[in-house]
Amino acid sequence: MQGIARENIKKNKDKLHRRVLVTHSAEETAAAGKELANMLTPGDVVLLNGDLGAGKTHFTQGICEGLGIDAYAVSPTFTIVNEYRSGRSVLNHMDVYRLSDFDELIDIGFDDYLSGGGITVIEWADKFEELSQLPERTFKVDIERVNGPEQDKRRITVVFPGDPGLSDANGNETEGE
What we know:
Layout: H1 3-7, E1 16-23, H2 26-37, E2 45-49, H3 56-66, E3 81-84, E4 91-95, H4 102-107, H5 110-115, E5 119-123, E6 138-145, E7 154-161
Parallel strand pairs: 2-5, 2-6, 4-5
Antiparallel strand pairs: 1-7, 3-4, 6-7
Helix pairs in contact: 2-3
């Protein structure tokens, strides 16, 4: 194994915390992303998983808003990476759906994004097992549609690292399980 991505694969996970939210609209899904942005600091990785149309990009739009980024985030399905530089941190927004394997991600400069001091959000992260084992400050977000009369209802599960006294970027403490 070579490079930062492979060197940072974490063998021993710290305490992980889990939060489950239910949203009822695209706006609420974006608001959940904005709330997560308060916990993010440069170097963090957010792994987004969910079916097509689940709300991964809406969630990322909320992260952008929470970071003070003045651009409207769009899915980088064909470009693979969109970089946003106008907020309190650079945001690297990746979509790995069209990549065939983890080595292809490394070939497009994944190590550079991880070491560049920004926050990296990766859509379709469950496609590569290696991504689930990345750096210490990795946030895993699963977005799923909830069956029922509300078409826009989503269950968002966020698993994040830290101790029960972990403070977010604004100094607010989070609670552990």
